[in-house]
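sry for the spam today, last one i promise. C-alpha cells for design, 409 residues
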C-alpha cells in the first residue's frame, strides 16, 4: 500500500457505497472522496502511528524515571502558526522557566509529566501523542529528571506508572453525508466497539492492557460473543419450556427450531451492537419466552413487547424510547434506511422505491427467514443478516436476492 493506491482504492469504495459530496464542496477538503481529503487522511494516519509508537515506547518504567517530562515544541514551520500557549493555558497547562524560542512572549515553556492528562486535553483527537491538531507542526521533546526537578515540573523521587492506552482509544470521526446503508455497514463490522451519535462515530473499545494485547480481532471477538449469547439463550429457553406452552411452541419441528435459532442469532447481534434494532411482529404470548430468555442471556440489550411488536435494542447505543421505536417499526421499518438493517416485515408498497426480496437459506437451500429491502441497500442488509446467522449459529447459511417487479438485483 502507498499513498496513491490508498486514495484510488478509497475513492472506489466511496463510489460503491453511494457517497455523493456536496456539489459546492466537490474537490475540497470537505469532500471525503477528494484526493486532497484522502491524502490528508493518509498523512495524518502515518503521523498518528509514528506519534503513538514513540509515546508507547516511552511508557516504560526506566525511561519514565530517567526522562519523566515532555516539552511541547515546534518541529515543523507553518505559514499560519496556532497560538499554542493559549491552547495550553485553556486546557489547564502550566508554564515553567523562561520562554523558549518558539513562543518568546509566552509565560514560560509548555512542560508536563509524560502521564499528565494535559497531553490528551490539548489534542483535537483526545489522544496523548502528536499530532495534536490537523496539520500541526508541534512535537514533544524529552526532559531529563534533573532539569524537570530543577524547573518544578516533577517533584523529587516522583514515580510514574506506565499508561496503556490503545492506538484508537477515544477516536471519533465525522460521518456527515455518509449514506445510511454505509453507516449500518460500519455498525455491522465493528459492533459495540463503535458508537454512532448523530453525524459522528466514536471508537469505544475497552482500554485495558489485557484488551490491547488480546489476540482476537474485532470480528473474532464479536463472533465468539454471539455464539456465547445464543448458547445462553438456548439454555434459558430450555428451562422456560418446562413452565410455559408458548416456549414449547419454539420446539418440536424443523420450522420451529429454525425460527428459534434465527431469533436468538439476531438478538445476539443486538447484544453485540452489530444490529441497531431487532423487530418482529408477534403476539405477546409468543413473544414472552423470547423476552425472558433474551433478558437473562443478553443483559446489555433491552427487550420489550409493545403493540404487536417485539423490539430489542441497546439503550447505550440508540437513545430512542420504546414508544419511538414502536412507532417507527409500526409505520415503516425501513424509513430510516437500515436502522433495522432491512429486517422489518413491511410490505413492498411501503418502500416507495425499487425493492427486492432477500431470502436467508440453510445449507440445504431451505428458507429460514426473509425480508424486503430497497434495491440500493439490499446486498449490505443481506450480508449483515447473514453475519447474524453465521456468527450466532455457525457456517452453512447463505442469502439470495430475488428480483421483484419494477426492481432488480
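last one done:
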Amino acid at each position: 500500500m502507498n499513498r496513491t493506491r490508498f486514495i484510488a482504492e478509497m475513492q472506489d469504495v466511496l463510489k460503491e457505497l453511494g457517497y455523493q459530496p456536496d456539489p459546492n464542496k466537490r474537490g475540497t477538503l470537505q469532500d471525503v472522496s477528494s484526493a486532497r481529503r484522502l491524502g490528508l487522511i493518509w498523512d495524518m494516519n502515518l503521523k498518528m502511528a509514528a506519534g503513538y509508537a514513540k509515546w508507547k515506547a516511552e511508557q516504560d518504567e526506566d525511561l519514565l524515571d530517567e526522562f519523566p517530562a515532555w516539552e511541547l515544541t515546534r518541529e515543523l514551520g507553518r505559514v499560519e502558526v496556532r497560538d499554542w500557549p493559549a491552547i495550553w493555558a485553556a486546557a489547564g497547562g502550566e508554564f515553567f522557566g523562561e520562554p523558549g524560542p518558539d513562543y518568546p512572549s509566552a509565560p514560560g515553556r509548555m512542560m508536563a509529566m509524560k502521564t499528565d492528562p494535559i497531553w490528551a486535553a490539548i489534542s483535537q483527537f483526545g489522544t496523548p501523542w502528536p499530532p495534536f491538531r490537523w496539520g500541526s507542526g508541534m512535537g514533544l521533546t524529552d526532559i531529563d529528571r534533573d532539569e524537570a526537578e530543577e524547573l518544578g515540573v516533577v517533584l523529587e523521587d516522583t514515580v510514574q506508572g506506565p499508561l496503556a492506552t490503545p492506538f484508537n482509544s477515544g477516536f471519533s470521526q465525522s460521518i456527515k453525508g455518509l449514506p445510511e446503508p454505509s453507516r449500518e455497514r460500519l455498525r455491522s463490522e465493528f459492533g459495540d466497539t463503535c458508537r454512532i451519535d448523530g453525524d459522528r462515530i466514536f471508537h469505544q473499545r475497552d482500554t485495558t492492557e489485557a484488551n490491547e494485547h488480546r489476540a482476537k480481532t474485532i470480528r473474532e471477538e464479536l463472533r465468539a460473543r454471539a455464539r456465547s449469547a445464543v448458547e445462553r439463550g438456548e439454555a434459558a429457553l430450555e428451562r422456560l419450556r418446562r413452565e410455559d406452552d408458548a416456549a414449547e411452541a419454539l420446539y418440536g419441528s424443523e420450522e420451529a427450531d429454525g425460527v428459534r435459532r434465527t431469533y436468538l442469532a439476531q438478538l445476539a447481534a443486538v447484544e453485540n451492537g452489530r444490529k441497531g434494532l431487532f423487530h418482529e411482529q408477534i403476539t405477546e404470548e409468543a413473544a414472552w419466552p423470547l423476552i425472558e430468555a433474551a433478558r437473562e442471556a443478553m443483559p446489555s440489550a433491552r427487550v420489550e413487547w409493545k403493540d404487536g411488536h417485539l423490539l430489542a435494542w441497546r439503550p447505550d447505543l440508540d437513545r430512542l424510547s420504546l414508544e419511538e421505536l414502536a412507532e417507527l417499526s409500526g409505520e415503516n421499518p425501513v424509513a430510516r434506511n437500515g436502522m433495522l438493517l432491512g429486517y422489518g416485515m413491511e410490505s413492498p408498497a411501503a418502500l416507495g422505491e425499487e425493492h427486492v426480496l432477500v431470502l436467508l437459506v440453510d445449507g440445504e437451500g431451505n428458507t429460514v427467514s426473509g425480508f424486503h429491502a430497497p434495491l440500493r441497500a439490499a446486498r449490505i442488509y443481506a450480508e449483515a443478516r447473514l453475519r447474524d446467522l453465521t456468527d450466532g449459529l455457525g457456517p452453512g447459511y447463505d442469502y439470495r436476492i430475488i428480483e421483484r417487479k419494477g426492481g432488480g438485483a
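Residues 35-57 form the longest helix (23 residues). ok im logging off now
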